[in-house]
């Protein structure tokens, strides 16, 4: 199912760029460039949140890079993030935030992100996330 989602997503992108047979590269998920892109995506997505808690990058699942006509490249990153204990309004950098322990983890976000890198500058072009309830969703406590 995931593969289909990505294929559709890439298909849409390919259409938007009107690129014919541009080579898709699969860089190493652990490379510094990929990590930099994933962290830029993490920061961007956190900046878009208006309520709740910040998310920290947990794992990069898949990366593709596609050359752009302007000499830059686009990154298509599939990554997952975990909810931290830092509120979105907390100025603490997310790198310093504690990820909620498994039992408390309310939300894990599975995201597909497209970034462009032109002249060394990364920008998020598009993203979509699927939030999944954690293993033990928080239940509201009834106090008598
Ligand atoms: C975040 O962590 C870094 C590295 O551990 C530390 O130098 C910095 O002071 C911390 N920032 C805050 C706001 O706690």
From TrEMBL:
Signal peptide: 1-18
Entry keyword annotation includes Disulfide bond: yes
Cystatin fetuin-A-type domain boundaries: 24-132
Pfam families the UniProt entry points to: Cystatin
Cited PROSITE patterns: CYSTATIN_FETUIN_A, FETUIN_2
One annotated GO molecular function: cysteine-type endopeptidase inhibitor activity
GO cellular component terms attached to this protein's record: blood microparticle; extracellular matrix
Compartments where found: Secreted
Keywords: Disulfide bond, Glycoprotein, Repeat, Secreted, Signal
InterPro entries in UniProt: Cystatin_dom (IPR000010), Cystatin_Fetuin_A (IPR025760), Cystatin_sf (IPR046350), Kininogen_Fetuin_HRG (IPR050735), Prot_inh_fetuin_CS (IPR001363)
Protein name as annotated: Cystatin fetuin-A-type domain-containing protein
Organism: Albula glossodonta
């Amino acid at each position: 199912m995931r593969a289909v989602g990505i294929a559709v997503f890439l298909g849409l992108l390919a259409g938007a760029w009107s690129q014919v047979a541009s080579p898709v590269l699969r860089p190493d998920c652990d490379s510094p460039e990929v990590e930099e892109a994933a962290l830029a995506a993490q920061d961007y997505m956190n900046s878009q949140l208006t309520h709740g808690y910040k998310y920290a990058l947990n794992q990069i699942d898949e990366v593709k890079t596609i050359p752009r006509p302007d000499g830059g490249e686009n990154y298509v990153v599939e990554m997952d993030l975990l909810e931290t204990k830092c509120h979105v309004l907390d100025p603490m950098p997310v790198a310093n935030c504690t990820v909620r322990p498994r039992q408390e983890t309310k939300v894990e976000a599975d995201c597909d992100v497209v970034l462009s890198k032109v002249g060394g500058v990364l920008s998020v072009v598009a993203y979509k996330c699927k939030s999944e309830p954690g293993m033990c969703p928080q239940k509201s406590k009834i106090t008598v």
